[in-house]
UniProtKB/TrEMBL annotation:
Protein known as: Fe-S cluster assembly scaffold SufA
Lineage: superkingdom: Bacteria
Gene Ontology CC terms: cytosol
NCBIfam families: iron-sulfur cluster assembly accessory protein, PRK09504.1
GO biological process, one term: iron-sulfur cluster assembly
Organism taxonomic ancestry: Bacteria, Pseudomonadati, Pseudomonadota, Gammaproteobacteria, Enterobacterales
Tagged with keyword Kinase: no
Length: 125
């Protein structure tokens, strides 16, 4: 599954994709509208927390070459190729929690989460 660049080849994978709720798509569109030059959002992961991984969202001003583009209406979400084996099938939502509004990730590959919900772990395949 690895390519010469060290990443897996998505063409060799039974790709489930990343989906966005209408609320998540609307928030991405809103961010693009209020941020000059922003084209969308990038989703990746980093090693973090007590469970293993954390989701990382960042703004995109130029389409990154190491990502796949997922679109929902006018919303553009670039997903890092290196993160796909860990987050494939994830459903992204945007919800209100008390006074906060946050992106929530419903990842079918996540086997456990830390108590604070900031990190998640997966089982090795």
């Amino acid at each position: 599954m690895a390519t010469d660049s060290g990443l897996f080849d998505p063409a060799e994978m039974n790709w489930q994709g990343i989906t966005l709720t209408d609320a998540a798509a609307q928030q991405i569109v809103h961010l693009v509208e209020v941020t000059p030059g922003l084209q969308g959002v990038r989703l990746g992961i980093k090693v973090s927390g007590c469970a293993g991984f954390a989701y990382v969202l960042s703004g995109v001003t130029e389409p990154p070459p190491d990502c796949l583009l997922c679109e929902h209406g006018q919303a553009r979400l670039w997903v890092e190729l290196a993160a796909l084996p860990v987050i494939d099938g994830t459903h992204v939502d945007y919800v209100r929690e008390g006074l906060n509004q946050v992106f929530k990730f419903h990842n079918p590959k996540a086997q456990h989460e830390c108590g604070c919900g900031e990190s998640f772990g997966v089982e090795a395949e």
